[in-house]
Amino acid sequence: xPQTAEEPCPxxxxxxxxxxxxxxxxxxxxxxxxxxxxxxxxxxxxAAGGRTGLDAVVTGADVAAARELRDAFTMIFRAxxxxxDGEAALPAAEDYLQRIAVRYPLTPRLTADGCHLVPAQDGxxxxxGALFAAAVDLAARGAWGRLKMCKNPTCYTGFFDKTRNSSxxxxxxxxxxxxxxxxYRSRAKSG
Length: 191
Ligand SMILES: [Zn+2]
Prior knowledge:
Layout: H1 11-24, H2 39-48, H3 60-80, H4 84-100, E1 106-111, E2 114-119, H5 123-140, E3 147-149, E4 158-160, H6 173-190
Antiparallel strand pairs: 1-2, 3-4
The structure holds zinc ion (ZN).
InterPro entries: ABATE (IPR010852), ABATE_dom_sf (IPR023286), Znf_CGNR (IPR021005)
Domain Zinc finger CGNR: 146-187
Protein name: Zinc finger CGNR domain-containing protein
């Protein structure tokens, strides 16, 4: 279903975007600490995403996998906001996500109301699978390209672009006015 200007983020798309943005935003932003440094943090993220039945122990290898996934999704969202370094590193990120997706299979869940994909596995693998299911959900709604990283270099927060024509580059008005002021200063300096 294509996005409409009246409803840029329908409720279930918001669930999907919230999951993905919450994941990429565990990265250090500004002066913040990385929030995906060990098994405890990954467990907390999985619990917050409602991944129950986590009887498996979360290991350091799972944390390494989470951080690699996070880097790849971040690179995709940077490309969505037109970051040039995002575009340069994009093929590697796409290749990584295409190769790794086979580890996190999804299953169609059919009802009379519709069909959506859910992770085929529980625990940590299911938690990572939920990220891919969220990506599929957003893409099906035409909203995939609306997940972006803020272009303000002191921010780099992941956000959902709610602008009418998907042209937003900054997470907030304060980030866009800071960028405008910086552009003005550099024009004044060079002019
Ligand atoms: Zn920002």
